[in-house]
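Quick one: structure tokens for this chain, please?
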Amino acid sequence: MARTRRHFRFRLAAALLVGFAFVEAGVRAVDARRGFSSRSRTAWFWLYEADPRLGFRGRPHAALATPTQTIRHNADGFRDDRDLAAFPPAKQRRLVACVGDAGTYGLGAGSNAHTYPAVLERELRALTHDDRFVVLNAGLPNYSSAEIATLVEDRLLALAPELVVAMSFKEDFEYLELAPHERNGYRFYPLRIGGFWASGLPRLLLTSSFLGRVADKTRPALVDDFGVRRALPAHESVGTEGARRYLENVGRLADRCQRAGATLLMVDQPVHYSMCAYSDAKVEGAERLRKALHDLCGERGVPVLSAHTTLDWKGLTLGDDNLLGTAGYERLAKLLAPQILAVVNPAEATDSPRRAQRSGEHAEGTGDRAGRD
């Protein structure tokens, strides 16, 4: 009798394994036909890894594809097709390090080549006829000013950048009021830093496309990075303490860049308030924080590049969370490039800033209305 039961359990286990293999093969075949790579649905896990100082960072050599975009990381974990070791020596390049959240990283861009830092490099070279310009995309989804300042201090200043272009606003505005362990990104990216998901068995299970799809569907409703709690929602506005932390982080970033001889430029990040479903109170809070940022940068001598009121939103289809998309990232890069050159060396900008300014003035009414209506 016992032998019969063991035989039955063995046959049942074998049948389950065969069934699972059949389902897994079917899911992978369907995904491949639709343009998904095997781990694309669990990108929130496979694109990132734990970092003791940053919380998380890009995983080196990570790659995945969906029907709408392809993402590749270099050997250093950045969304750039070149490894840092392949960059020209410091004296033979003009390095621009772009830091920020998903808008800098380029979610929704389609490919690495269509992120705003990649387009910015082409624009700077075209406007100046100087191929020494190298723009590094060091953005990462859900990075706030705290992670950005630490990243620049720990990793990027060692590369001797001429410019650091930081686009940090929306992430800070929406999440700085939350407790430090629950803000910016730990609500969504990346579960690799959480105890449960980082353990051996869940990691092994997430190699399965089928189980990965199940985890992807259930994760937002059931768990956050820390295992069992729902993430807190964003606040309507940033209070005194949240604003203080944000401005302190920007000030720390400015100090580090100044000491290293790098010029810091802050981008007034464009946010379409209407498409992001901002209430009137939330718009008012965002504008107060913008003013505080402008005031701080004015006091510290940090140039602020215009984008929020000058980006032409017309015809753009925004992705989730204010992602600009391929066309929007291109417009942003072309808007910023002449402003950057005007800061670095007005002579290099020739008449391009004037053309961009005229274009910006033409678009400002549209951009401002789109951001507020």
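The chain is about 50% helix and 10% strand.
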